[in-house]
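BUG-392 | component: ligand-complex export | severity: low

The export step for magnesium ion jobs runs without errors, but we want the raw record kept on the ticket for reference. Input record follows.
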Amino acid sequence: MKEYILCKYGEIALKGLNKSSFESVLTKNIKRRLSGIGNFSVTRAQSTIYVEPLDDSCDMDEAVERLKKVFGIAKLTKALEVEKSMEAILCDSMDYLAEAFEGYSTFKVNAKRADKKFPFKSPEICAELGHKILEQFPGMRVDVHEPDVTVTVEIRERHAFINALKIDGAGGIPVGTGGRGLLLLSGGIDSPVAGYMIAKRGVVVQAVHFEAPPYTSERARLKVEKLVSEIAEYCGDVVFHCVPFTRIQECIRDKCPEELFTIIMRRLMFEIAQRIADKEDLACVITGESLGQVASQTMYAMVCTDAACRMPVLRPCIGMDKAEIVEISRKIGTFETSIEPYEDCCTVFTPKHPKTRPVLDDVVKAQDSFDFEPLIAEAVENTEVKVIKKFV
Ligand code: ATP
Ligand code: MG
């Protein structure tokens, strides 16, 4: 008798020929995420991944917490492996079910037989276990329509599995199956959410942050690194690039029209991001922009920034309200860090009246009046890179 964790896929189950490569990436991600909390074996069978503790050092509760953040898992559950006999199913499952029933009052039993040779049919298994539960747990009633807890008995090849604790997984598809991208990460609320959303669609995310010391502080940088480690719970280890942006900002301030400051700054951010993306073999840039949120996020402003970018710009928050973005940031645990009050380079030298309808030609002309190339090259050259891990 042994406790396992079963992970059920969501969308991967729908993949045809590619399914096994998705499964193998997911298995690898799970193994990586469990490192440091015990010796686990991770195997797959019948669209389920079995996480088996190999010794007493395994922290099963921490394993569940970590697996809840692995993309590609739709549901997970602790499950009990018992001997494949009716007797064992009835007797050995009671302690496990006592935990599952805590705080609940109704249940139903579901049985699935992968092994059709098992001498009891599904309805018999349900009836027998149902009776036993009613006997043992006087507080529980049967409700076949809307039970609080569904107890599932699966008769597999070698063992029977009993599970009752269905936990929602992170959904999405496994990180590493959808290419690689570069997240423009500020210290705000939106960009960590954007990174989470794109990683959820299978993309390996690296992050780039532009800082402007001494206008921005060391603590602002530490805050961003903290955000990176928070999204790393979902994304896996994140390569983090920190670009010194002060000289470029000062030059835009000194050489370009004030009302175009923000838009030119953003174009230069994209230019630098692309060079980093090229070096790191990343295929897109990702931002937390949301249409109409601020002057630099009008459609016209985006036309001007996109013109500076050869790569696709993914903006997963584009159609979301701030309240919806906040809701996700609370859910993934970045909100409290995002609202720490440190300055971002974007708030340095911001014009009082930024253009909400910039015209691309004017912007390009203004930008071309000064040769930014040496400064861009210098910023890329002096970018600091480090890998930020959530788990060792
Ligand atoms: P956020 O909440 O993500 O900071 P925001 O609503 O404050 O977004 P802006 O400051 O206009 O909006 O930034 C828009 C996007 O540009 C951000 O979501 C982020 O992707 C990128 N960005 C802004 N500032 C920086 C920065 N200092 N470093 C890297 N990317 C940045
Ligand atoms: Mg911001």
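Assignee comment: Attached the raw record above. The domain at 180-388 is CATH 3.40.50.620 (Rossmann fold).
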